[in-house]
Amino acid sequence: DWTPNAFVEETVEELKEKLGNDKVVLGLSGGVDSSVAAMLLHKAIGENLYCIFVNNGLLRKNEFEDVLHQYEGMGLNVKGVDASARFLDALAGKSDPEEKRKTIGRVFIEVFDDEAHLIQDVKWLAQGTIYPDVIESVSATGGPSATIKSHHNVGGLPDFMKLKVVEPLKALFKDEVRRVGASMNMDSHLLGRHPFPGPGLAIRILGDLTREKVRILQEVDAIFINNLRSWNLYDKVWQAGAMLLPVNSVGVMGDERTYEKCVALRAVESTDGMTADWVNLPYEFLQKTSNEIINKVKGVNRVVYDISSKPPATIEWE
Ligand code: XMP
């Protein structure tokens, strides 16, 4: 019978044997899979695991600082790299969804490769790949795997991709990954986090991106997610987030007409992201959340709720 405790014990032994005194580099995303993979490797090889957590400027509000701090608290040998400006500059003026994805993938690889080169004699690249990532051609759960494919055509692999690969979670499903994390006493908040796409808020800001749009969406998203938590709805939802739409609409504030942005809230139930149903959130929750967003976030005067299921609508809007 499979148990998380036995899995941890066996995997740590295997990793010790396989890796010996070698150095390993791993990219942390803030998500469940890479975090659990890091903890397993940390147990096996300690300081020889070099974790890199990149801020692409498209994370949730305060996420980079909060999660980095949490990783440090877990004892991980982690380096936070704030590359926000590099990503946002590269994205300036780009509005096509695939072009945005490719740009983010390319910059991520450049940043990660630069960092990996700073580690002397690194031998392995660790990844938080889980079983569904192996069976689907494109990862739906995050990580750079999807973007790496499009980089292939640009000629020559970056050096970190020539490293030997170690993937301790390759045989597990998501719920098993969470149980493994729990058996290592990892924070339940971290283990219960919703999936979040690698390109982050970039694919929730429809069309071109500016720093101001990122800021607005971070504020809106934070209100939505905090309210889901305080209403005890967060864990009942598979994934939730807000989309910043490329339309302005007329509103009224006092005696003034406004002409400002519209955001769409989206919350779905799903087991694997391949199909999804929109969640029937309580009207009262939507009412309070909408009021709070419009009152607190300058530049937004309208909130709508997305009632489309997948298929045919995707979870993300881009
Ligand atoms: P869609 O929008 O295709 O999303 O219904 C399904 C799941 O995949 C996530 N997603 C991505 N994850 N890079 C990622 O790492 C991407 O480019 C990407 N696009 C979508 C999405 O958040 C959902 O969980």
Descriptive tags:
4-stranded mixed beta sheet; 318 residues; 11 helices; GMP Synthetase, Chain A, domain 3; alpha/beta; 5-stranded parallel beta sheet; binds xanthosine-5'-monophosphate; Rossmann fold; globular
Can you offer a commentary on this structure?
By secondary structure, the chain is α/β, with parallel strands linked by helices. The strands form two sheets. Strands 3-2-1-4-5 form a five-stranded parallel sheet, with helices on both faces. Strands 6, 7, 8 and 9 form a four-stranded mixed sheet that branches. It contains eleven helices and nine strands. It has helices at residues 4-19, 32-45, 63-73, 84-91, 97-117, 131-135, 145-151, 174-183, 188-191, 211-230, 283-296; strands at residues 23-28, 49-55, 78-82, 122-126, 164-166, 239-253, 256-269, 277-278, 300-305. 41% of the residues lie in helices and 20% in strands. The longest helix has 21 residues, at 97-117. The protein folds into two domains: 4-191, Rossmann fold (3-Layer(aba) Sandwich), CATH 3.40.50.620; 210-305, GMP Synthetase, Chain A, domain 3. A hairpin with a 2-residue loop joins β6 (239-253) and β7. The structure holds xanthosine-5'-monophosphate. Xanthosine-5'-monophosphate is lined by residues 101, 140, 142, 146, 195, 197-199, 239, 273, 310, 314-316. Residues 101, 140, 142, 146, 195, 197-199, 239, 273, 310, 314-316 line the site of xanthosine-5'-monophosphate.
